[in-house]
Amino acid sequence: MIHSSSIHSDANAEVHDVPMSVLIRPIPPIVDEGKVQSIANTLSDPDTESLVPPIDVLWIKGSEGGDYYYSFGGCHRYAAHQRLGRPFIKAKLVRSTITDLRSYLGGSTPDLK
């Protein structure tokens, strides 16, 4: 059994299929193409697909009830899913606050509704 760890989420946290279209990725990634291709190859094989660990996603409720899903890590996994045209990515949703988001974005933090 493979165990992945994260600075954000519990190793036993529930994993969700999150639509790629809802993820907000405010920091442009720098990726190693070989690593992205390797992950894409792993995802393309039903026997190894489950070896790719989920990404962590900050789930923030806006001031008027909107849901916002911010992803800062998992750049290679995200890119591999994107290149394969996958509509969903496995993710651990980490309930967060605007204060948590501000620690990543500082003064660039948007007003979430």
UniProtKB/TrEMBL annotation:
InterPro entries: ParB/Sulfiredoxin_sf (IPR036086), ParB_N (IPR003115), Sulfiredoxin (IPR016692)
Matching Pfam families: ParB_N
Biological-process GO terms, alphabetical: cellular response to oxidative stress
Catalysed reactions listed for this entry: S-hydroxy-S-oxy-L-cysteinyl-[peroxiredoxin] + [protein]-dithiol + ATP = S-hydroxy-L-cysteinyl-[peroxiredoxin] + [protein]-disulfide + ADP + phosphate
Keywords assigned: Antioxidant, ATP-binding, Disulfide bond, Methylation, Nucleotide-binding, Oxidoreductase
EC number: 1.8.98.2
Gene3D superfamilies: Conserved hypothetical protein from pyrococcus furiosus pfu- 392566-001, ParB domain (3.90.1530.10)
UniProt keyword ATP-binding, yes or no: yes
Any one cellular-component term (Gene Ontology): cytoplasm
GO molecular-function term, one example from the UniProt record: sulfiredoxin activity
Binding sites annotated in the UniProt record for ATP: 74-77
All copies of domain ParB-like N-terminal, residue ranges: 16-110
Family indicated by similarity: Belongs to the sulfiredoxin family.
Name of the protein in its database record: Sulfiredoxin
GN (gene name): LOC113464399
